[in-house]
Amino acid sequence: MPAPRHSRPLASALGAALALALATLTACSSSDAAAPADGGPTVAANVSVGPLGGTSFSPVTVTVRKGQAVTWTWEEGAHSVTSGSACKPDGKFDSSLKTAPDTFTQVFDAEGSYPYFCTPHCAAGMTGVVVVTP
Ligand SMILES: [Cu+2]
């Protein structure tokens, strides 16, 4: 008997919530992949936004596989996760400006390197990279 199917947005929200819960429970092992919930994407990497009140992403570089997701968690302050290099948005993804506590999850469906930055703090060096492998 087939399991009941959830809509894609609900599944994604559940996946993000589950990943956040797991990240909280296993704070010492932030690189662990969370199991997909109801077919949602696997959140394979977690990035802290503005830890310790600073203007940084931690870790700066994360690597996931094609089809997996990255979740950013706002620790302190107001920041954005905006794709692009040299402080210029390229339109691939954008959290918009968010204030802690908040989260943003992005699924990466194509391999490649995805530089991103924080709009208000890019000039201060608040940048990161998501590397997506096959
Ligand atoms: Cu910022």
User: How far is the N terminus from the C terminus?
Assistant: 33 Å
Which compounds are bound in this model? Answer: copper (II) ion
Enumerate the strands of the largest sheet in spatial order, edge to edge or round the barrel. Answer: 3-11-10-6-7
What is the CATH class name? Mainly Beta
- Overall structural class, as computed from helix and strand content, comes to mainly beta
Strand proportion, as a percent range, falls in 35-45%
Topology of helices and strands:
Layout (H helix, E strand, L loop, with lengths): L7 H18 L17 E7 L7 E2 L2 E5 L3 E6 L3 E2 L2 E4 L2 E7 L3 E2 L2 E6 L4 E6 L9 E7 L1
Parallel strand pairs: 1-4, 3-11
Antiparallel strand pairs: 1-2, 4-9, 5-8, 6-7, 6-10, 10-11
